[in-house]
Amino acid sequence: MQFLIPANSKKSMLIFGVFETFDLILFAVGVGATILLLLIIAPSSLLTAVIDLLPAVICGFLVLPVPNYHNIRVVIQEVYRFYTTRQKFIWKGWCVKDEYNESK
Asked: Is the separation of the CB atoms in 96 and 68 below 8 Å?
C-alpha cells in the first residue's frame, strides 16, 4: 500500500503546531532575562522600562510565525545564508554526456 502524505504533516511535529523546542527555550530565556532585569533595574522611567522589556520583546519577535517560513529567526538565517554563500549557480542540465568541453 502507498499513502499520500499531506504537505502540512510536519506541523504536527511542532509544539502547539507552531513552535520548535529551540523557539520555546529562546523565548523562555528572553522572558527570564526580562524578569531578572525587572528585579535588578526597577523601572522608574520610560527608558528603564524599555530596557527591562527589551529581551522579551526581541525573543518574542524572533519566534513570531510568518507565512512561507517557520518564523522571523528562520527568515534572518535565510537572508544571512543568501548574502554570505556563493552566488554563482552552476547548472549542468539533464544530459548524460556533456558535448561542450570546458577545458578549451
From this structure: no
Please give the C-alpha separations between residue 27 and each of 8, 20, 93, in angstroms, as whole numbers. Answer: 24, 11, 45
Q: pTM for the whole thing?
A: 0.66
CA gap 31, 26 in Å, rounded: 9
- pLDDT higher for 70 or 102? 70
For residue 59, give the H/E element and its range.
helix 46-62
Residue type, 47: L
Q: CB neighbours of 53 closer than 8 A, spacing ≥ 6?
A: 34
The whole-angstrom separation of Cα 90 and Cα 99 is: 16
